[in-house]
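Re: [help] complex structure
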Amino acid sequence: MSPAPTEVGGQRARATMREVAALAGVSLKTVSRVVNAETGVSPQVRERVLRAADQLDYRHNLAASNLRRTGSRTGVIGALLQDVSNSFSAGLLRAIEDAANLRGTAVLAASLDEQSDRERQRVTDLVGRRVDGLVLVPASDNQEYLLSERRAGLPIVFVDRLPTGIDVDSVTVDNRAGAREAVEHLAAGGHRRIALLGDLDTIQTAQLRRAGYLDAVRALGLDEDPLLVVTNLRTPEEASAAVAALLALPDPPTALLAGRNVLSVGAIRQLRISGLSDHVAIVGFDDFPMADLFDPPLTVIRQNVQVIGTEVARILFARLDGDTSPPQHVVVEHALVQRGSGEIAAPERGR
Amino acid sequence: MSPAPTEVGGQRARATMREVAALAGVSLKTVSRVVNAETGVSPQVRERVLRAADQLDYRHNLAASNLRRTGSRTGVIGALLQDVSNSFSAGLLRAIEDAANLRGTAVLAASLDEQSDRERQRVTDLVGRRVDGLVLVPASDNQEYLLSERRAGLPIVFVDRLPTGIDVDSVTVDNRAGAREAVEHLAAGGHRRIALLGDLDTIQTAQLRRAGYLDAVRALGLDEDPLLVVTNLRTPEEASAAVAALLALPDPPTALLAGRNVLSVGAIRQLRISGLSDHVAIVGFDDFPMADLFDPPLTVIRQNVQVIGTEVARILFARLDGDTSPPQHVVVEHALVQRGSGEIAAPERGR
DNA sequence: TGTCAGGAAGACAACGTTGTCTTTCCCAGT
DNA sequence: ACTGGGAAAGACAACGTTGTCTTCCTGACA
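Output below.
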């Protein structure tokens, strides 16, 4: 007979409703009713079913249930971030998770490491798993391939970067303005030779921050020296090396703008090694939990991760609740947080 | 007729194999063969099916597929951590994710915030989703409830804390020894009044670290003063307040052992405020990315997150590959990393 | 010309559920 | 005793796939 617990590899496979029904001496459908807390089951039968379920370690199979309930949700969203171990991504993930929790939704998280092929791969996987929605910090330079997913009704929210080739919701900060303000702040301290440490040129935010840097350099008539712009830096180590090279220039920069938190870290390490922590000013893009404990405390352009994550979740779930208004592009406020490292004045000019 | 794309809420629902088959003029099974790259399909038919699939934005439904392939895996594991935004959890998640990637497995991540009811809730959810395996940093004090899941063949690996009420694999560090070594190190610097800032007493690691602290205090004959042991601290703010109170004692501590990274942060903030950063020694439990940039750089007991995460994944996937050997309890090496804050000597005695 | 091998493709059932419909049974009302 | 009504429980099909078995067709070979 079928309803006998089947052995697989010496281990009893999960019991099914059919087996529970057999043990309780009722029909499969009655078990379903009990499991789903539907009406129409007498207390005695209900009790008998629950006992049988317990005895067999029965666990409701959500996948099968979702399959049958057509048009129903899986209760899972995907979050494709840059690197979950990075504080920005981790904070984002946490904010998204908290919002998802309130709706009984689980979060599948993955790191893309700025690799566009990984982005495609992960999206395909998540779509195959029928996630209800997607949060994406894109690594590719074009997301036209998502058009078919949108057509199929998959809500997608971009974070940190705007979509290209497709118009979907996004939550970003004004990276260009942020970088500009950072440079203006340094210039106000008398600096005229300000170096930029930038991430990969292929990354949208890196491009915008560089543009903001140039905006300010030109507007304020600061030294526009190609030697002061170092990009395509990925790790703290690369940033350290870049700073070492900058400091060795005949006419070295007196201030630095680090385009991302890992670059700030590398830059500060090198300034320490060179004994210049208190003489070269530095502003970092991206705040992180312990920046105030550095020596000197790090001045940053803060992106409020908490707010960004909350906005992302708000939009995504609104879409899931049927919001069909045109795509929104939310820009979250950023702020210059002065802590010391950015307020180091430029040395007196003229030797 | 059935194979006509169905409209749901004004939006075309995902196409199914049936619809693709109808459009391509073949049987459902043939589509299945093409999608799964099975043999027995002529190149022409194959081409026709692929075109139809493309035209309908067909996406293979992994849930349905897994359901049918009995005994097959879902290709998802669950990671129930303390708080994904915390650098320890985030690092762990990343290491697990990397290992999972290599096997085409996705990771469902969730934060428990040390709440045991959340642990139960999340486990139930993940089991319902039929995850292939579970990584758990337990928040509860007893995990007997997992016995039934083990019986059903679910591999479970505990991290950071040992299981209670059930014997399953675990990966931890020797918290007791770590704390002992930290105290010994401080004592070697001449300190006799060393305070402990501890996490919730209900947390296993907090208990062990406290025990290690006491071991050393007693073994070395240091001041065993209940006033110097402050526990149940959760946030940097609470740690700051605790340090402020400690410093206000008639006979204040000359060194601190912070039981967790967020507590180190709070403690250091208060030492700064009090202007005692260079006079009160501090060792933190848990390393984190930028501890070397603090002022003074933070001496820590490092738990190698990368190694821990990799071990966890190794064990979990070995179980999935059929390893039925008795539960392993891996203890990963920790290390005292001297950076400065822990090497501040005690002030001269006598006075 | 007849037979048979082998490849290509389809029919059918099943995975573990749930929606819908039907059956069964008990009791109130006459 | 008979009917009607409603609650409890079951039968059956379906969700989107895949495993197994069967059918069909083409071509080689005797």
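Residues 16-18, 28-29, 32-33, 35-36, 60-61, 63-70 of chain B lie near DNA strand D (CB under 10 Å from a C1').
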